[in-house]
Amino acid sequence: MRDVQSRDVTSFITLLTDYGLEDGFVAACHGVIAGIAPEARVIDVCHLVPPGDVRRGAAILSQTIPYLPAGVHIGAVDPGAGTSRRAVAVTAGARVFVGPDNGLLSWAVRAAGGAAAAYEIRDEAHFLRPVSPTFPGRDVFAPVAARLALGLDPAELGPQVPLDRLVTLPEPTSLMRDGAVEGEVVSVDRFGNTQLSIAVGDLRALGVRVGDNLGVWMGRRQLTLPYRETFAAVPPGELVAFADSAGLIAIGVNCGDAAQRLGLPPGAHVRVSPSR
């Protein structure tokens, strides 16, 4: 691939995992990359994805990718490690995404303009040896990413995978209906802010502006929430709806935890309308 081969040793590699920070797992991945491509710059996207939470990892990566430089992007949230699930490298423009074929990469690939090609990572000549079945991030994804950053053609990693055979997560959706917009909980961040699939433009289309109130239906519950620029615009302990940094509507609590208060898991249905 020409866009990959044109990179040099100043390429960027980004790393998103659920490895946490209590152990040496992240450092081991950094060390493997440094041993192969010592001048590549590594950006840590996140290592506190809840263990095995592919959807949360996908949300973080997809919402961060517009602000990351072109390069190689490792995703290692991999509850199927050691099973028959594929490891893949997916090209999208000037980016290559490396990780398990479990949907983790799918939203970020779409955010990067869509997949151009995908390859199963199978050639063990590019792996760290021996390969631990429980740590592909260190032994497979990290060394492969480092070699891609040095110019390795992704086609050399293994057979091409038809794009329609890649595992994808269902995209969060929103639907305008009967003077309201219906969506779902996309993710919950470490502050307890509950991010919805409802965009700022959806509320604008309903005639809602900052300063108005929203009617929010969550199953059998109905709330009236102030729609403000930030959670700090309401008194401590109060619920508030606001536009988050991804341009999506979120529900938060000033100095509190909205997820804990509301008990809304990712995927939960939410309906929002103007509250007159």
UniProtKB/TrEMBL annotation:
<dbReference type="InterPro" id="IPR023228">
    <property type="entry name" value="SAM_OH_AdoTrfase_N_sf"/>
</dbReference>
<dbReference type="Pfam" id="PF20257">
    <property type="entry name" value="SAM_HAT_C"/>
</dbReference>
<comment type="similarity">
    <text>Belongs to the SAM hydrolase / SAM-dependent halogenase family.</text>
</comment>
<dbReference type="InterPro" id="IPR002747">
    <property type="entry name" value="SAM_OH_AdoTrfase"/>
</dbReference>
<dbReference type="InterPro" id="IPR046469">
    <property type="entry name" value="SAM_HAT_N"/>
</dbReference>
<dbReference type="InterPro" id="IPR023227">
    <property type="entry name" value="SAM_OH_AdoTrfase_C_sf"/>
</dbReference>
<dbReference type="InterPro" id="IPR046470">
    <property type="entry name" value="SAM_HAT_C"/>
</dbReference>
<protein>
    <recommendedName>
        <fullName>SAM-dependent chlorinase/fluorinase</fullName>
    </recommendedName>
</protein>
<feature type="domain" description="S-adenosyl-l-methionine hydroxide adenosyltransferase C-terminal">
    <location>
        <begin position="183"/>
        <end position="271"/>
    </location>
</feature>
<keyword id="KW-0949">S-adenosyl-L-methionine</keyword>
<dbReference type="Pfam" id="PF01887">
    <property type="entry name" value="SAM_HAT_N"/>
</dbReference>
<feature type="domain" description="S-adenosyl-l-methionine hydroxide adenosyltransferase N-terminal">
    <location>
        <begin position="13"/>
        <end position="158"/>
    </location>
</feature>
